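Hi L.,

You mentioned the student needs an example of a multi-chain input paired with its predicted structure. This one should do, with 409 residues in total across all chains.
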Amino acid sequence: MEYPVDAARLEGDLRTLAGFSAPSTLGGVTRRAWSEEFFAAQAWLIERFEEAGLAVHVDAVNNIWGRWEEGSLPAVVAGSHIDSVPSGGAYDGCLGVLGALEAIRALRAAGHRPSRQLWVVAWMEEEGSNFGTALLGSRAFVGDLDLDDAAARRDLTGRTLAEAVAARGHDWSELADLPSGVDDIGSYLELHIEQGPILEAAGLPVGVVTDIVCFRAGTVTFTGVSNHAGTTPMEGRRDAAVGAARAIVAARDLAVRHGIRATTGRLSATPGGSNVIPGAAAFSLDTRHRDKPPLDAYLAELKDQFRIIADDEGLTWDYSESYDIDPVPLDPDLQKLFGSFCEASSIPYQPMVSGAGHDAMALAPRVPAGMLFVPSRAGVSHAPSEYTSPEHCALGADLLARAMARLSE
Ligand code: GLV
Ligand code: MN
Ligand code: MN
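Structure written out for the whole complex:
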């Protein structure tokens, strides 16, 4: 360890942050963005930033910034997100925020005097688990969000995103000013758990991310006709759930053929009575690939299948896209920098592609962005058993501290 990163303190912070969770019979951490527990976690985080001597700024979309204001701009920024998926883990995103905070504490303890400002950021709603649009805070910040579309998005309670922003004391029109802040950022660093099995299987403590896969996601809805479950003959039914079920299987089968990752994690039938033929059925569809053309080809062919299924079942269908995010290469110089630190300390590492989305995707087209991965036990993430050892978390924070120190010399 080059800087005095405190593995136990970092682990303690991760545990404390995990405590801000809605109850769930499935266990794990449930901290949807914009929820009560989410804002309680933000308040705790703000106190930790202040305790570390950082000046706190909360922007219009509720990204939280902790600024070490010594030195000049543009700043070196490190961070990630603290919202979670339902019944997720304690490390996804949180390690990137708390690891950056720990890196700053270690740099201060080591007497580092930055000539450029060092900032920590916790981006708002990375997971899209409340308003259904991933990378919300980071995309709003760089100006890569359709503000009219976003304002009208509704969460499960029916509240619009514009109303949620207003409830935090900001006017929606302020979001248009956020991108002017991009010029204040010189580089962006994100430490993250791998969320996959590669590092553990290879026995490596570190991955240096080269690219992040592209993803397209949306909601598919089949619409038919509701009727009585007992009196309506099987022939001639227009059962939306049957259409959705066939479509989900088609999405999986076609994904296997095309080498795509495709997932349905949310599924509903309306009106939702066990003795009612559902008149509508909707499901989420999350699709990913390293390259864009195969993903686009997959979705085009899948829509043909939806058409065939709908015709067969007497239904109509619709695909409403929530996002279409291009694959993103990360900055080659930052990859080299991380690699050189590993080589200097004989830390084995490998370059790797990220199959998960990250806020770095939003930043990378605008500022040099770099990402580091540390191993996930058994490759598990977005689940309660997500785990990364305190030693690996601390190693990640130390490498982050080294990069922050070098870039602010
Ligand atoms: C972010 O967690 C993703 O879904 O990749
Ligand atoms: Mn995640
Ligand atoms: Mn994440």
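You could point out the following to them. The pocket of manganese (II) ion (ligand 2) is lined by residues 85, 92, 127, 382 (CB under 6 Å). The chain has a mean pLDDT of 97.

Best wishes,
N.
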